[in-house]
Design brief:
There is one protein chain. The protein is α/β, with parallel strands linked by helices. The protein folds into three domains: about 185-390, P-loop containing nucleotide triphosphate hydrolases (Rossmann fold, 3-Layer(aba) Sandwich), CATH 3.40.50; about 415-690, 3-Layer(aba) Sandwich (Rossmann fold); about 695-930, P-loop containing nucleotide triphosphate hydrolases (Rossmann fold), CATH 3.40.50. Helices cover about 35% and strands about 20% of the residues. The chain has 22 helices and 31 strands. It has a ten-stranded mixed beta sheet with strand order 23-22-31-30-29-24-28-27-25-26, sandwiched between helices. Strands 20-19-18-13-17-16-14-15-21 form a nine-stranded mixed beta sheet, with helices on both faces. A seven-stranded mixed beta sheet has the order 5-4-6-7-3-8-9, sandwiched between helices. Helix 5 packs parallel to helix 7 (about 310-320), helix 10 packs across helix 11 (about 535-545) and helix 10 runs parallel beside helix 13 (about 570-585). The longest helix has about 90 residues, at about 5-90. Residues about 120-175 have low confidence and may be disordered. The structure holds adenosine-5'-triphosphate (ATP). Adenosine-5'-triphosphate binds near residues 640, 659 and 663.
C-alpha cells in the first residue's frame, strides 16, 4: 500500500478521532445544558405552584371581606328601605292583613301591595359558614354577586353548587328571615293613578287590597269610590257593597262611562275654580296649609269596558293629567294607558313575577287579597260612621287666637264666621243695616241651639261688651241659655249678656216685656239720632264717640210661642216686633228669631211686612219654609250643617256651612271664663228670669227699698213679681180713697196666703210697730199656719179666729163710720173672708168696712175663694163692685172677673200654677200677670 495511501489513511483516522472527541465534548455540553434546563424548569414549576397558592389565599380573604361588607351594607340598606317604607305607609297603609285595621291618617300615605324582592340578603353567621362557595374551589368563576334574591335561576347558581337543589322552586326563592322586609308601595291618594295589568286573579287581589287600604287610611267618607265594571256589573267590587248604603261607593252602569268621566272632569274644573281658586296648586297643598280638606278623594275604578270612544279617551287623558291635584284618582284595569307622570303601572303575576313600574326591574311578590270578612267588616264600619255624620268640628275653630279677642268694632255691623263651607272657605255672617235680622229654623234635634251658641261664641269673642249686648229668651222648656248667667256651680257669665229668660214657655208676658224693653231702647236711640241729626248707628257712634251704643242682638228661641195666642199679648208683641224689625235695623237692634216648628215660621208668614225684614235666613237640616219656596237646599243637608242665606232665602244666595260643636260645656266654659275674666269691672251679671223659680220677697229691690216711718205718702202694698225685664214688684197704693181694698180671688190656698203675706209684710215694713194697726183674721183652718206666720212677722198685730172676729168687725165698722179722724192706718188681713161667721150682721159690718173704711185709712186685704163669693160679700149679684179697687186673681176664669174689670170686658186670663193676675183700677189700663213671692 502506498505511502501516500497510508498517509491518507492516517490522516483520515486522525480526522475521525478528532471529530469523535469534539462530538463527545458537544454531547457532554448538551447533557449539562439539558440538566440545567430541567432544574430551572422544576424550580419554575415549584415557584408557580407556590405563587398560585398564595394568590388563592389572598383572593379568598378578599372575597370574605367583600362578603362581609356586602352583608352589612345590604342589611343596612334593606333596613333603611324598610324604615322609609314604614314611614311612607304607616298603619293601615302598610300593616299586613292579619293584623290590619282601619287607622285614619293625617295625610295620604303610600299603599302597600306586596314586597320587593331585594338582591341577596345576608344570612345569619352559621348559615353563611355552611354556604357552599362557588369561589372557594378555585374555579375560574370569580362572580361574587349580581344575583337578585328574587331572580329565579341566578340565585341557585350563586348560592348553591351545581348539584344542589334550588331551595324554593315554584313558590319562589329563599326568603331570608333576617332580612328586613321592604314593602312594595304605590301612591294613589293625593298623588296619581294606578293601572293594573297582567294576571287577572292577582290583579283582583291587588285592587281589593289597594281600595281597602285607601279607605282604611282616611276618615270615613273622605274616600269615595265610583265603580265602572261593565263586564261583571259591579262584581269586581262586590266585597265593598256595604259602602253603597252610605253613598261611599256608587256604580255607574255599562252605558254611563261618558257620564262618569264628564262628571269627574266637572269636579276637577269646579275644584280648580272654587276650591283651589288660584291660591293652591292642589288639594294636598291646601290641606297642608290650612289643615282642612274640603273635598273628598274620588277614586274611580274602571274595570275594562272595551275600546274607548274619542270623547272618552280625551276625558280619561284629562283626568290622568289633572285629576290627582283635585283628589280625583283613577284605578284602571283593562284599558291601555300611556305612561305619564303620576301613573303607576302594576303588572300582576303570581309568585315573584310581578313588577311595579316605580321599582324598575325589582321583582315584587304581591300580597294576598284581604279576607272577605276584613273587607266587609271595614266597609260596614265606614258606612256606619258616614251615616252617623262627620265628627264635630271644635268651637275653637271659630274663635280668634287667645289674646286677640274683642278687637272688632261693631259700628258698621257684626260679622263672625259660622264654620267652613264644603268648598273650603269660611262662611262669614253679618248682621248690619242689611241684613238686619235673622230667622233660624230646624226641626228639634237638628242643632238649632248649637248653632245659636256657635254664632254667639264667634261674636262674643270678637266684639267687646261695649260693642255688643245680648238679650236671650228661650220659650222652650229647658234652660239652654242659662249657661250664660251665673249659676250655682259656675259663677261666671258671658259678659255681653244683659238678660236671660229661660223656662218662659208659659210666660209669654216675659217675651212681651223684652220687646217693650227693646222698644224703649229703640226710642232712646232714635231720639239720640234725632238730636245728632244722624240716620244710623254708625253715624251716631261717630257723632257721639263717648256714648254707649252697643249693637243689641235679641235672640228669641221658639218665638212662635209668643205669637201663638189670639189675645192682647200676641197683638202687642206683633206690633212691637214689627216696629223693632223695621226701625231697629238702623239703630243697631237685631232680632234673631228661632223656631223648630214650621208653624212658628208660618205664624210670621201672615205678616209679610215683618217677614221681609228678616232677610238673613238660616235653615238647619230638613227645616221647612224658612228659605224661598223653590229652595230645597235644607232637604239634603248633612247633619251639623246649615244653609245660611242672606237674601231672604233666594236659592242663589245659599251658602252651606258646617257648624262646629258649641254645645260641649267644657269648651264653652273655657271661652266664657276667658271672656269673663276680661270683663270691665263695672259690668254686673245679666238679669236671669227663670219661669220655674219662685221669687223671694227678700230679693225684691222694691221691698228692700221700703223704710219704716220715712214716707209721708200713702203706703204701698207689694203683691208679687211682675213679669218684667227689671224684676219689679207689682204694687197697689193704699191711699185714703174709696175702693182702696184688695181682694185675692181663687181657691189656691198657698198662693193666696203667699200674696197676703207679701202684702202684709211689705206694708208692715213701712211702719214702726205703733205706726199702723194690723189685724190678721183666719177663717179657714187650711190657712191657719200661714196666717199665724204672718201674725208672728208683724210685731203688735192682732190675731183673730172665727170665734172672735165679731169683735174686730164691730170695732172696725164703728171705726169706718166714725166722725173723728183716724190716728193711724189699720190693715185687716182676712184669710177666707167668704167664710165670715156671724150671719147678716157680720156681713153688713164687713160691707161697711169695705165701703167706708179706706177713706178713714182702714183697708181690708181679703182672700175670697171665688169671684162669686166676693160678690156675695159685697151684697149680691146686683151690688156694686167698686169697694174692690184692686184684686189679684188666681184660679178664676177671666169671664168671672168681668164685674171687677170696669169697662173692658173680661180680662185675658188662663189660670196657671203660681201665677196670678193683678188689676188696680186706679192705675191700670189692663191687668198684669204676676208671680207670687214664695213664703220663705
Ligand atoms: N254642629 C254640631 N256638632 C256636634 N254636635 C252637634 C252639633 N249641632 C248639634 N249637635 C248635638 O246635637 C244635639 C241636638 O242639638 P241642639 O240641642 O242644638 O238641637 P236643637 O235643634 O236645638 O234641638 P231642640 O230644639 O230639641 O233643643 C245636641 O246633643 C248637640 O250637642
Amino acid at each position: 500500500m502506498a505511502e501516500s495511501t497510508r498517509n491518507r489513511v492516517m490522516e483520515i483516522r486522525a480526522g475521525l478521532s478528532h471529530a469523535l472527541g469534539a462530538a463527545q465534548i458537544a454531547l457532554e455540553r448538551a447533557l449539562d445544558a439539558r440538566e440545567a434546563a430541567e432544574a430551572r424548569y422544576r424550580r419554575m414549576v415549584a415557584a408557580a405552584t407556590a405563587r398560585r397558592r398564595k394568590l388563592a389565599v389572598a383572593r379568598d380573604e378578599r372575597i370574605h371581606e367583600i362578603d362581609a361588607w356586602h352583608d352589612t351594607e345590604l342589611a343596612a340598606l334593606a333596613g333603611a328601605a324598610a324604615g322609609a317604607a314604614d314611614r311612607a305607609a304607616p298603619g293601615a297603609a302598610g300593616e299586613p292583613w292579619h293584623s290590619w285595621e282601619p287607622t285614619p291618617l293625617e295625610r295620604a300615605a303610600e299603599l302597600r301591595i306586596g314586597r320587593l324582592m331585594l338582591p341577596e340578603a345576608p344570612l345569619p353567621a352559621p348559615a353563611r359558614a355552611e354556604r357552599p362557595s362557588a369561589h372557594r374551589d378555585g374555579g375560574g368563576d370569580d362572580r361574587i354577586g349580581g344575583a337578585w334574591a328574587g331572580a329565579p335561576g341566578e340565585v341557585t347558581e350563586a348560592w348553591a353548587g351545581p348539584d344542589s337543589e334550588p331551595p324554593e322552586s315554584a313558590a319562589g326563592p329563599v326568603v331570608d328571615e333576617a332580612t328586613p322586609e321592604v314593602p312594595a308601595l304605590v301612591r294613589l291618594l293625593d298623588h296619581g293613578h294606578i293601572v293594573i295589568e297582567g294576571d287577572r286573579r292577582t290583579g283582583d287581589d291587588v285592587l281589593a287590597g289597594l281600595l281597602l287600604r285607601a279607605l282604611g287610611t282616611s276618615v270615613p267618607g273622605q274616600v269615595q269610590i265610583i265603580g265602572y265594571d261593565p263586564e261583571n256589573l259591579g262584581g269586581g267590587l262586590a266585597g265593598f257593597a256595604p259602602l253603597a248604603t252610605a253613598g261611599v261607593l256608587t256604580f255607574v252602569g255599562p252605558g254611563d262611562l261618558d257620564k262618569l268621566l264628564d262628571e269627574l272632569v266637572g269636579h276637577v274644573r269646579r275644584i280648580n275654580e272654587t276650591v283651589l281658586a288660584g291660591e293652591y296648586s292642589s288639594v294636598r297643598e291646601l290641606h297642608a296649609a290650612t289643615k282642612r280638606r274640603p273635598e273628598p278623594w274620588r277614586v274611580a275604578v274602571l274595570l275594562g269596558g272595551g275600546e274607548l270612544s274619542r270623547h272618552q279617551r280625551t276625558q280619561l287623558d284629562r283626568l290622568l293629567r289633572t285629576g290627582a291635584a283635585c283628589g280625583v284618582h283613577l284605578v284602571i284595569r283593562g284599558q291601555s294607558v300611556e305612561p305619564g307622570p303620576g301613573i303607576e303601572f302594576v303588572v300582576a303575576a303570581p309568585g315573584d313575577g310581578a313588577r311595579i313600574e316605580s321599582a324598575g326591574d325589582l321583582p315584587v311578590r304581591l300580597d294576598p287579597a284581604p279576607t272577605p270578612s276584613v273587607v266587609t267588616a271595614t266597609c260596614r264600619q265606614i258606612a256606619e260612621a258616614v251615616a252617623a255624620g262627620p265628627a264635630p268640628v271644635a268651637l275653637d275653630s271659630l274663635l280668634p287666637e287667645a289674646g286677640a279677642e274683642w278687637q272688632e268694632s261693631s259700628a258698621a255691623g257684626l260679622t263672625a264666621p259660622l264654620g267652613d263651607s264644603p268648598q273650603g272657605p269660611r262662611v262669614q255672617v253679618t248682621l248690619s243695616d242689611y241684613p238686619p235680622h235673622a230667622l233660624i229654623a230646624g226641626p228639634s234635634g237638628t242643632g238649632k241651639t248649637n248653632f245659636i251658641y256657635a254664632w254667639m261664641g264667634a261674636l262674643a269673642a270678637r266684639y267687646s261688651p261695649d260693642e255688643l249686648a245680648f238679650y236671650l229668651l228661650d220659650f222652650k222648656e229647658g234652660v239652654s241659655f242659662a249657661r250664660f248667667a251665673p249659676g250655682r256651680r259656675d259663677p261666671s257669665w258671658l259678659p255681653h249678656v244683659r238678660l236671660v229668660g229661660v223656662n218662659v214657655n208659659t210666660d209669654r208676658e216675659f217675651g212681651l216685656a223684652l220687646l217693650r224693653f227693646l222698644g224703649a231702647e229703640l226710642k232712646r236711640r232714635a231720639d239720640a239720632a234725632k238730636q245728632y241729626e244722624v240716620t244710623n248707628l254708625a253715624e251716631l257712634r261717630a257723632e257721639d264717640p263717648d256714648g254707649s251704643w252697643p249693637r243689641i242682638v235679641a235672640v228669641v228661641d221658639e218665638f212662635q210661642v209668643l205669637l201663638g195666642g189670639r189675645d192682647s199679648v200676641t197683638a202687642e208683641a206683633v206690633d212691637l216686633l214689627e216696629d223693632l224689625a223695621r226701625r231697629g235695623r238702623s239703630q243697631g237692634i237685631h232680632l234673631v228669631l228661632a223656631s223648630q216648628d214650621v208653624s212658628g215660621i208660618e205664624a210670621l208668614w201672615g205678616r209679610p211686612a215683618l217677614v221681609a225684614q228678616f232677610s238673613l235666613r238660616i235653615a238647619l237640616p230638613r227645616a221647612r219654609r224658612v228659605l224661598a219656596e223653590t229652595n230645597a237646599a235644607a232637604d239634603s243637608l248633612p247633619r251639623y250643617h246649615a244653609v245660611v242665606n242672606a237674601d231672604s232665602g233666594a236659592p242663589e244666595a245659599n251658602r252651606i256651612v258646617r257648624v262646629p260643636a258649641a254645645g260641649d260645656r267644657e269648651q264653652w266654659s273655657s271661652l266664657q271664663h276667658r271672656l269673663w275674666r276680661r270683663r270691665p269691672p263695672e259690668l254686673g251679671p245679666p238679669r236671669l228670669f227663670d219661669g220655674d223659680v219662685v221669687p223671694r220677697l227678700a230679693d225684691s229691690p222694691d221691698y228692700r227699698d221700703l223704710r219704716a216711718g220715712e214716707s209721708t205718702t200713702a203706703p204701698v202694698m207689694l203683691l208679687g213679681q211682675t213679669i218684667d225685664v227689671a224684676s219689679r214688684s207689682a204694687q197697689t197704693v193704699l191711699r185714703r180713697a174709696p175702693g182702696r181694698n184688695l181682694a185675692v180671688l181663687g181657691t189656691r190656698t198657698d198662693e193666696a196666703c203667699a200674696i197676703l203675706a207679701t202684702a202684709g209684710r211689705s206694708l208692715a215694713a213701712q211702719f214702726t210697730p205703733t205706726g199702723a194697726r194690723f189685724s190678721v183674721v183666719c177663717l179657714d183652718t187650711d190657712a191657719r199656719a200661714a196666717a199665724e206666720a204672718l201674725h208672728a212677722r208683724i210685731p203688735g198685730s192682732g190675731f183673730y179666729l172665727p170665734d172672735d172676729v165679731y169683735w174686730l168687725l164691730e170695732d172696725a165698722a164703728a171705726e169706718a163710720t166714725a166722725s173723728w179722724p183716724a190716728d193711724r192706718p189699720h190693715f185687716i188681713l182676712i184669710y177666707a173672708a167668704d167664710a165670715l161667721p156671724g150671719g147678716r150682721e157680720a156681713a153688713d159690718q164687713l160691707r161697711t168696712v169695705l165701703r167706708q173704711g179706706p177713706e178713714r185709712r182702714l183697708h181690708v186685704l181679703g182672700w175670697w175663694r171665688g169671684a162669686g163669693l166676693l160678690r156675695d160679700s159685697l151684697g149680691g149679684h146686683a151690688s156694686r163692685t167698686d169697694p174692690i179697687g184692686a184684686w189679684v186673681a188666681l184660679d178664676v176664669h177671666g169671664s168671672e172677673l168681668t164685674p171687677y174689670y170696669p169697662g173692658q170686658g173680661a180680662p185675658n186670663w188662663y189660670p196657671r200654677p203660681w201665677r196670678a193676675l193683678h188689676f188696680d183700677r186706679s192705675v191700670h189700663r189692663g191687668a198684669e200677670v204676676i208671680i207670687p213671692y214664695g213664703t220663705s
